[in-house]
Specification:
Helices cover 30% and strands 16% of the residues. It has 413 residues and is α+β, with helices and mostly antiparallel strands. Helix 1 crosses helix 3 and helix 5 packs across helix 6. The longest helix has 17 residues.
């Protein structure tokens, strides 16, 4: 026997019909007990039927008919009009302007204005941009010269002839010795690599190089690598990146930039060539004459010595343990893995990467000592590492070396 189906509205109509039936001898109490409702509810449905007929027996909205905090239609329209006149103003600017122009009115919060603009289609969703995801790396404390170099661009400015000037600076973290201060035509890998190569040839290789997360030092790709930083890895230089938005982690370099700006760019020189001459003069005074409080009021040259690691004229090839599987990155930025192509990075085109088996399914992808991600051997999907930075172990302190007189002139011809 099938179940008998019924609906709430049908039961209400039956209830009203039973009450309106003249032949029925049901009292209100008996009728309500038969339908399992209270007498208050029973009278409510009869009253609704008398006013609205069958439509009154349907479920009614329980939303409040009035909202004490609702904005008046005139205020809403005024908000929309301001937005239409100033298409690039956000909610905060609109509210600030209205409160200044009409302080007597109670204007809503910026979040409320934002909701109003969205409801009226006056807010375009922003395109989600891919940003650098690096959280920084382990940061070391330099205990001797060349333990850590730092590199950055001093904020660009225009020389007297209107040309843009981008100074690239490189300094030793232990001695504060300014290794390079060069104007580059563009802040990219092509123009920065010769400056680093010149410094490496003159002063040797550092153990680590600290930079921010911007180009050409870092990228949003795997391992945050660029072609420039991949070159450093091949030279055996550890990559150190400060956390995004934390310039204080490279405070020594930032403080040097402030001194550089005061003495060479206020005001800027007439031409880029004249500006470079000013940088060269600053380089000599800063390194050899200017006392530094952190160095017992001695110039940085008194605490610096050339690195014992010389720059190799032929770039070394990365080596991997014997149990690694080696793949070379193709011109498309991909490697071939079990018949499928897996995208790695354009920064590593032509470079070998190693795959270290960590389970029957997963392989750890590395570029030398830099972990890039975890390759799923079943799906061919490469998952990037998103680990938090850990402090790099401090190198053992060697016997103290005499540093005076151990440096070269340091100028780039």
């Amino acid at each position: 026997m099938p179940w008998k189906e019924t609906h709430v509205e049908e039961e209400r109509m039956r209830f009203v019909a039973g009450w309106l039936d003249e032949d029925s001898e049901w009292t209100m109490r008996e009728l309500c007990e038969a339908f399992g409702v209270s007498r208050k509810t029973g009278y409510k449905w009869i009253e609704r039927y008398a006013v609205s007929g069958l439509e009154g027996l349907r479920d009614q909205s329980r939303a409040a008919k009035t909202h004490p905090n609702a904005l008046a239609a005139a205020l809403v329209e005024h908000l929309l009009e301001v937005r239409r006149r100033h298409r690039f103003w956000g909610p905060r600017k609109i509210v600030a302007w209205l409160r200044r122009e009409q302080p007597a009115l109670a204007w809503p919060a910026a979040s409320t204005v934002g909701d109003i603009l969205k409801r009226h289609g006056l807010v375009r969703p922003r395109r989600r941009r891919r940003r650098a995801v690096a959280l920084g790396t382990g940061l070391s404390d330099p205990v001797r010269p060349n333990d850590q170099w730092s590199a950055d661009f001093k904020g660009w400015f225009r020389t007297g002839d209107g040309q843009r000037c981008d100074p690239l600076t490189i300094a030793d973290g232990f001695s504060r010795f300014l290794l390079r201060c060069r104007v580059v035509a563009r802040a990219d890998e092509e123009h920065c690599r010769p400056v680093f190569r010149s410094a490496f040839r003159e002063y040797g290789l550092p153990a680590g190089l600290r930079t921010d997360n911007g180009p050409p030092f870092a990228s949003p790709g795997l391992g945050g690598l660029t072609r420039l930083s991949a070159w450093w890895v091949k030279l055996g230089i550890a990559l150190e990146r400060i956390a995004p938005g934390a310039p204080q982690q490279n405070g020594r370099h930032e403080r040097m930039h402030e001194t550089l700006k005061q003495e060479t760019a206020r005001p800027p020189r007439a031409t880029a060539h004249a500006q470079q001459r000013a940088f060269d003069q600053f380089w000599y005074v800063y390194n050899f004459e200017r006392p530094h409080e952190a160095l017992a009021d001695t110039p940085p040259a008194h605490s610096y010595a050339v690195s014992p690691r010389s720059y190799p004229e032929h770039e070394p090839e990365l080596e991997y343990p014997g149990h690694f599987e080696i793949r070379r990155v193709r011109t498309s930025g991909e490697i071939k893995w079990r018949g499928e192509f897996v995208y790695v990075s354009q920064a590593l085109v032509g470079e070998p990467v190693g795959l270290d088996p960590v389970s029957d399914r997963h392989w750890r992808l590395c570029f030398g000592p830099v972990p890039l991600g975890l390759l799923d051997g079943w799906t061919g999907r490469l998952l990037a590492y998103r680990s938090r930075p850990r402090r790099r172990a401090r190198a053992p302190v060697p016997p103290r070396q005499e540093a005076a007189g151990a440096i070269c002139s340091g100028r780039e011809e």
